Amino acid sequence: MKKFLLIFSLVLTAALAARSQATSDPTPLREDSENVWIYFHADEGTKGLAGLPASTAIYAHTGACTNLGDWRYAPQWLDNSDKYRLEYVSENLWRLFIGDIREYYGIPANETVRRLAFVFRNADGSKEGKATGGGDIFIDVLANGQEVPPQAEAKPYPGGAPQMGAVRNSDGSVTFCLAAPGKSNVSIIGSWNDYAQTEAGDMYVDQTDGIDYFWQTVSGLKEGETYLYYYLVDGTISVGDPYANLVLDPDNDKYIPASVFPDLPAFPADKVPNVCLAVYRSDINDYDWQVKDFKGVDKENLIIYELLLRDFTGTEGKALGDGTVRGAIEKIPYLKSLGINAVELLPITEFSGNISWGYNPNFYFAPDKAYGTPDDYREFIDECHRQGIAVILDMVFNQSDWQHPWYRMYPAGSNPLYNATAPHAYSVLNDFNQGHPLVARQWADCVKYWLTEYNVDGFRFDLVKGLGLNGSYANSGDAATNAFNQSRIDNMRAIQLAMQEVRPDAYFINENLAGAQEENAMAAFGQLNWSNLNHQGCQYAMGYSDDSSLQGFYAPAYDRTWGSTVSYLESHDEQRLAYQQRTYGAEAVKQTKTAMKRLGSAAAQMLLAPGAHMIWQFSEMGNEENTKNADGGNNTDPKTVNWNMLGNPYRAGLVKNYSELAAIRNGNPEIFSADASFTSACKATDWASGRTMKSVAGAGSVFTFINPNVDKAITFSFDFPSKNNADFKILSTSYEAESTFDAAAGKVTVPANCYIVIGTSAVNAVEGVEADDSDAPAEYFNLQGIRIAGPAKGEIHIVRKGNKTYKAIAE
Q1: Whether pLDDT at 797 is above 70
Q2: Secondary structure class of 390 (helix, strand, coil)
Q3: Can you say how many angstroms the Cα of residue 437 is from the centroid of all Cα atoms in its chain?
Q4: DSSP state of 101
Q5: What percent of the chain has pLDDT over 90?
Q6: Do 466 and 425 touch, CB atoms closer than 8 A?
Q7: How many CA atoms lie within 13 A of 29 on its CB side?
Q8: Any idea what the Cα angle at residue 593 is, between residues 588 and 595, rounded to 5°?
Q9: Cβ atoms within 10 A of the Cβ of 585, count?
Q10: What is the 3-state secondary structure (H, E, C) of 614-683?
């Protein structure tokens, strides 16, 4: 009889091997199970011990997870006692005798055993066998008398490889699919039958590549109607759909005004648990795109405007966080006039709450409703494209908040898709296990979805330092996190390849802030990397020469590949230069008139260095609102909407400078290309004598002169390529600055805090309104992007005529 039971157990173990790296006899385990054997399948999971001969000494590092914590009663690492040594059974199959669970681990009777934890290894620990994705291996232990969850019926996903989320079939039926590794059964519960849990909602399981995909096809769903649904996992855990294209939040949707999201379905609180519901509509991704063939500028010519929809528009003069997508659409003429050619939206995927920066995502395939409807987002993107502006989304792939279905699906500490403790130094929320193939697939599917269904033009990836494999960090300290990490390069390349399947020219931007070796390896694939010069910019803006070098706006100046960086003076993570000026700056730069001039000369050093650059919203107006808490951390509270800053002539003058500098870049890309010659002297030591930048391509040359001094003018000596002043023109200069040049004398005079940009005659002009021979009527806008009947005399305004937009001063 014992022999029959053992044979049956081995057959059962082999049958379950496709689903787990370790199985047990008996199955399932209970707290009082006797003669317990654990079977280790070396050819599953990470396969670090696969193919080893029978003579190899294999050990288990094992502990018990109880009601008092995880990994209790584990030995020291590399304890090679006989009780931890496995016995060879057959090729890639080993077993460990546990016997009585409590006796083996020494667990007292007053603790409840919930699961057993394992990492298998060789004698010296140089090789390990772990779960798929590199996590620990767990085997559940049932309480005595606890019922075993029924197993879902195995059946292949219709049509081939499982597709997560809702897929509409040719006959009108819809197949819903949820990946739930290691779970026994899942039911789908929806509004189509008033949320009744029925046998028809029981889902089949397709075990593909070691992952459990639960699926069911629902018929009778009408086109254009809204249906709500959720999943019930193992009969006890209610979760939403991680691939939902729209989500209802039980706690926060009621605070979204109908003016922001008309006809938002009411949450059926009397019929469903307190869980985010997925929304299914057959036409949710239908949109009549006006621009179908948009192509942005080459990546090294990007001038990006980083934008938080929450605070970009809204109630003027208030900090309510009530900005919307529709409000942003009204400001596109302003963005166009500023000269930017891309906007980068802080995260818009469904996040917790309604007032957020968006770095607490829960659902990666659904836009957050606090800013507007899915079609509002699409209209914003469509109109940006019509104006020649690309749209880049900020994506948060290192962490999620607590409503993500995969996070809710498992107990803390034994989730195959999340790390109990982040392996890197910069964790904030729930850290994803980047080595799990399901996590990697989520990222690939996510980027392809937004590129195809929303026509976005690329992504900026947050905290890339947290996107390495678990075993790639020596420890969770700062030094180990900042060290070169090949797995981060590999993971980001995998995401890029997924993007290129649908959009080969999509922008790819890493916020890695790592060393040159790692960033240049990423640049070799055409990826861009963020480059933070905020500290140096603040020093310059405050009027202090120490550590004020802005040479780093040019990537090769700090050992990066040419054109591989997106550098910036400010970002959402950094303090405002104008705040630092006002609070800590030299007395001579605290007045608005001087402060704005100085900010303009900092912008010139950024925008006129070859490569991509970024402007954080309202930097161009000299916004001086504090963005930091007392401890130096980010203050993520809503910020004051203050478009009225443009009423100040010096702030409007700074906007004019930004638009002129952008126009120089946009109108003369060849002068800032890799084939052009570029030299600069913008180091901290280039203070008293002044700073210079020079870009030359054929007959086209741009010369920039910056005076960092706070209280005296500088006369530069410069060898112009011609002695005739008529061969040159002023392209931009600080607002109300009386800068001059004399080519014959080789002199350029720049007042304190100011700059001047001089171009040869071959350089496309910036100032004034270009001729437009079309018959299109002129439209006029103020600098806030609001249409006006006509500007007052002396007022800076925007003119749109046909497909062209200009900035002008009314006479």
Answers
A1: no
A2: strand
A3: 19
A4: H
A5: 87
A6: no
A7: 25
A8: 55
A9: 23
A10: EEECCHHHCCCCCCECCCCCECCCCCCECHHHHHCHHHHHHHHHHHHHHHHHHHCHHHHCCCCEEEEECC
Instruction: Tell me how far apart the alpha carbons of residues 656 and 644 are, in angstroms, rounded to a whole number.
Output: 15
Pairing of strands 528-532, 247-248: unpaired
Rounded Cα distance, 304 and 572, in Å: 13
**pLDDT given for residue 413 in this prediction:** 79
Q: Which two tokens stand for residue 799?
A: 């003119």
Q: What tokens were used for 284?
A: 């949710």
- Specify the length of the chain in residues: 811
Tokens of 351: 């996040």
Q: Who's near 37: CB < 8 A, 6+ residues apart?
A: 9, 24, 25, 95, 96, 97, 98
* Residue 269 near residue 261, CB atoms below 8 Å: no
Q: Count other C-beta atoms under 10 Å from residue 340's C-beta.
A: 27
- Angle between helix axes 592-607 and 649-667 (nearest 10 degrees) is 10
* C-alpha neighbours within 13 Å on the C-beta side of residue 450: 28
Q: How confident is the model at residue 44 (pLDDT cuts 50, 70, 90)?
A: confident
Residue-wise pLDDT tens digits, 600-627: 999 999 999 999 999 999 999 999 999 9
Residues 6+ apart with CB under 8 A from 444: 494, 495, 498
H-helix or E-strand containing 603? helix 592-607
pTM flag (> 0.70): yes
Largest Cα–Cα separation, the chain: 108
Map tokens 């996903």 to a residue.
Answer: 157
767 to 336, 428, 726: CA distances (angstroms): 16, 47, 16
Report which residue type is found at 122.
N
Closest to 691 measured CA to CA, from 662, 716, 654:
716
| Inter-residue contact 118 to 136 (CB < 8 Å) | yes
Q: Which amino acid is at 552?
A: G
742-782: per-residue pLDDT in tens? 999 999 999 999 999 999 999 998 854 333 444 556 766 66
How far is it, in rounded angstroms, from Cα 243 to Cα 250?
Answer: 18
For 124-145, write each residue's pLDDT tens digit.
Answer: 999 999 987 778 899 989 888 7
Which of 363, 397, 419, 327 is closest to 785 using CA atoms? 327
Q: How is residue 670 written in tokens?
A: 């060849």
Q: Are 510 and 544 in contact, with CB atoms under 8 Å apart?
A: no
Token pair for 74: 């584990």
Q: Which amino acid is at 382?
A: D
Q: What beta strand segments (E) does 557-617 contain?
A: 565-568, 612-616
Say which residues have a Cβ less than 8 Å from residue 160's Cβ, sequence separation at least 6: none
Report the alpha-carbon distance of residue 700 to residue 190 in Å, rounded. Answer: 65
List of E strands, 660-801: 677-681, 691-697, 700-706, 714-717, 728-733, 740-742, 747-750, 755-760, 778-781, 787-788, 796-801
Radius of gyration of the chain (CA): 31
- What's the token pair of residue 733? 């200069």
Nearest to 640 by CA among 347, 306, 312, 331: 312
CB under 8 Å to 8, separation ≥6 — which residues? none
Compute the distance between CA of residue 679 and CA of residue 304 in angstroms, rounded to an integer: 23
Reading the block at residue 229, the tokens are 């649904």
Instruction: Put the strands of the sheet holding 787-788 in their side by side order.
Output: 787-788, 778-781, 796-801, 804-809
Q: How far is CA 20 from CA 161, 211, 457, in A?
A: 20, 9, 40
Q: Is 125 helix (H, G, I), strand (E, B) or coil?
A: coil
Q: Which two tokens stand for residue 371?
A: 């800013």
| Distance between CA atoms of residues 340 and 385, nearest Å | 12
| Amino acid of residue 587 | E
Fill in the DSSP letter of residue 487.
Answer: H
Alpha carbon distance 733, 664 (integer Å):
12
> How far is CA 504 from each of CA 384, 498, 523, rounded to the nearest angstrom?
20, 9, 16
DSSP string for 177-234: EEE-TT-S-EEEEEGGGTT---GGGBPEEEEETTEEEEEEEE--PPTT--EEEEEEET
